[in-house]
Design brief:
Mean pLDDT: 89
Protein name: HTH LytTR-type domain-containing protein
CATH architecture: Beta Barrel
Number of domains: 1
CATH topology: OB fold (Dihydrolipoamide Acetyltransferase, E2P)
Number of helices: 2
Order of helices and strands: EEEEEHEEEEEHE
CATH superfamily: LytTr DNA-binding domain
Number of strands: 11
Helix content: 10-25%
Distance between the termini: 33 Å
CATH class: Mainly Beta
Radius of gyration: 14 Å
Strand order of the largest sheet: 5-4-3-7-6
InterPro entries: LytTR_DNA-bd_dom (IPR007492)
Organism: Paenibacillus auburnensis
Low-confidence stretches: none
Domain HTH LytTR-type: 15-96
Largest sheet: 5 strands, antiparallel
């Protein structure tokens, strides 16, 4: 099991805990804290420090499939359940709803992300 050391608070006051790579849905630059990155899972949001590209490279070097989808966000391709071509969005639940987690994809990156997803999961739902 591969884990990432994260904190539960942006200032580190929550202590350090481990999150399994498989549970990470996406990474997003935290606009309120200049160097922190939000680590989104289905259950919670955690924090790490450093540049997004560094973490994407490090995680992909360990066998993960993270893809930068816009300037400040990278998705875990393995956890995407559906792509929306019209809205250029990745969904992490099969249906929309109040608990549905989504991540928008930059227009110029969409085709690359779609191709990557189809390679990893040929049965991905496209709408």
């Amino acid at each position: 099991m591969n884990c990432l050391s994260v904190t539960e608070a942006p200032d580190g006051s929550g202590g350090i805990i481990s999150v399994d790579f498989q549970h990470i849905l996406f990474l997003k630059c935290n606009t309120s804290e200049s160097q922190s990155i939000l680590v989104q899972t289905r259950e919670s949001v955690y924090y790490i420090m450093g540049p997004l590209r560094y973490w994407v490279s490090a995680l992909n070097s360990t066998g993960c499939h993270f893809s930068i989808v816009n300037r400040g966000t990278a998705v875990n391709i393995d956890n995407v359940s559906r792509l929306d071509r019209a809205f250029k969005a990745a969904y992490f639940n099969l249906r929309n709803g109040p608990n549905s987690l989504t991540c928008t994809i930059a227009y110029h990156r969409y085709r690359f992300v779609e191709k990557e997803l189809i390679t990893i999961n040929p049965n991905i739902i496209m709408c």
